[in-house]
Structure formats: C-alpha cells, structure tokens
Amino acid sequence: MDTKTVAVIGGTGDQGLGLALRWAVAGRNVIIGSRDVARAAAAALHVRERAGGSAQVEGRANAEAAAGAPLVALAVPFAAQMEILKSIAPSLRPGKILVDVTVPLEAAVGGAATKVLGVWAGSAAEQAARNVPEGVEVAGAFHNVSAYALQHLESPVDCDVLVCADRAEIRGAVRPWVEAIAGCRYVDGGRLENARTMEALTALLIGINIRHKVHAAGIRITGLPEAPPAPSGHRTEKQ
Q1: Do residues 77 and 111 touch, judged by C-beta distance below 8 A?
Q2: pLDDT value at 3 more than 50
Q3: Which of 65, 102, 104, 238 could be bridged to 33 by S-S, CB 3.0 to 4.6 A?
Q4: 3-class SS letters over the chain
C-alpha cells in the first residue's frame, strides 16, 4: 500500500489546508480535494509555495482526489459531511481508510461554535462509518488540533492527537500521519465510539480560545510512558 499519499477532502478550508500544509512539509504527497477544481488548484499552489522544496501537492475534484490516495482525510463542515461522503463514495474502494475530522458544531445550524449537536449515530465519525462502502475503514482523528497552529509553520503544533477506530490496525495505520506533524503525539483513542468525546472536546477548545483570547489551545494526555514532544525553543528538564 502507498503510505505516502493522502487526499484531503475539504482541503481549501482552514483545517484541511493546515493538514495539507503540514503533510507537504513532512514530504508526503498531498492531493487537495474540493467541489470547485479551481479552488483546489489554488490551494495546492498555496501549499506548494509555503512548503517549498519539491513538495508534491495537487488539486482535484473531490471524487478524483479520493480515488487517488489510500488514505482520505475528510475535513469538511458538518453540514456538508453527508453530501460530500455520497459524492465520493464510488471512489472509496475496499481497503481505503477514511479519517473523519468532522465536528458536529452547532454553528452548522446557525448556533454557537462552542456547542455540539446531537448526532443519531453518536458522532460524526460514526455517521461516516455508517455511510461508506463496505470494506472501507473509518477512523476519527485531528479534531482537537488547531487550524491556526497547523498553518503557522514557525512553531510546532503542541497537541496530542487521539485516534479512534474499531480496529487497532487502523489506528496504527494513522499513527505515522500524526507523527509527521511537528509537535503532535499519537495517542491510541480506542474504538470509534470514543470520537463522541473527541468531537465535543473541540467545542470546549474553541470556547477556551475565545475566553483566553488565543488561537491554538490544544490537549495533552498526561501519565503516559512516552513524554510529549517539547515545543521548539523550550528545554525539558532532562536537557
């Protein structure tokens, strides 16, 4: 399996663009997907210019982007999730992994971005899992990573990334994509149903950003045997 290529559906939005940028910087091949091919191409050019060097980034229509990579990250607003999933379903062949980054924020129906909507399936990630073709695996990840932090390359992201999926092998397959982003640490988040908590945490972090007038609040899980990466320019005790 190609382990270096990812399609970012919704790659013209803040979160998707940030993920595309960080993965391009890490030397991954990135396909940015959008309903508007011209917007996808413009976003790809922006990422190539910022990533520099020989960054491999291209823009395609959503379905074509999803067809071109074994790992597909869905980073779209909750209101668009089902429509876009249906449009790319023919491109999601058995063996592909869909990483759902969708958060069911109340803002999708004109409410507050600091609150989440109830989802019949339990979470947006579980809703995605119910609506992908048979043989496609779904993981939930990157919900709690600030789009602002992702796009500001001068600093590491400084956030743990919990990855949820019903099979440990799928969580493990997403791990290299977490660790490719400077400052991120992979944390096994267990079964996909735990995405319910991860998605709700996003609304909490948005509220923290607002109250503290910051842009990049994130999470760290303490008590694990492996210490999280130290932000650039900061020294740890052992150093």
Answers
A1: no
A2: yes
A3: 65
A4: CCCCEEEEECCCCHHHHHHHHHHHHCCCEEEEEECCHHHHHHHHHHHHHHHCCCCCEEEEEHHHHHHCCCEEEECCCHHHHHHHHHHHHHHCCCCCEEEECCCCEHHHHCCCCCCECCCCCCCHHHHHHHCCCCCCEEEECCCCCCHHHHHCCCCCCCEEEEEEECCHHHHHHHHHHHHCCCCEEEEECCCHHHHHHHHHHHHHHHHHHHHHCCCCCCCCCCCCCCCCCCCCCCCCCCC
- Residue 228 vs residue 5, higher pLDDT: 5
Task: Sketch out the chain's domains with CATH numbers.
Answer: 5-212 (3.40.50.720)
Residue 230 has pLDDT above 70, yes or no: no
The two tokens of residue 51 are 């990533």
* Structure confidence at residue 238 as a pLDDT band (50, 70, 90): very low
The pLDDT value given to residue 106: 85
Residue 118 banded pLDDT, cuts 50, 70, 90: confident
pLDDT for 47 beyond 90: yes
Q: Note the pTM of the prediction, 2 decimals.
A: 0.91
* Antiparallel, parallel or unpaired: β 159-165 and 137-140: antiparallel
The letter for the amino acid at 194 is: N
Burial of 189 (0-12, 13-18, 19+ CB in 10 A): buried
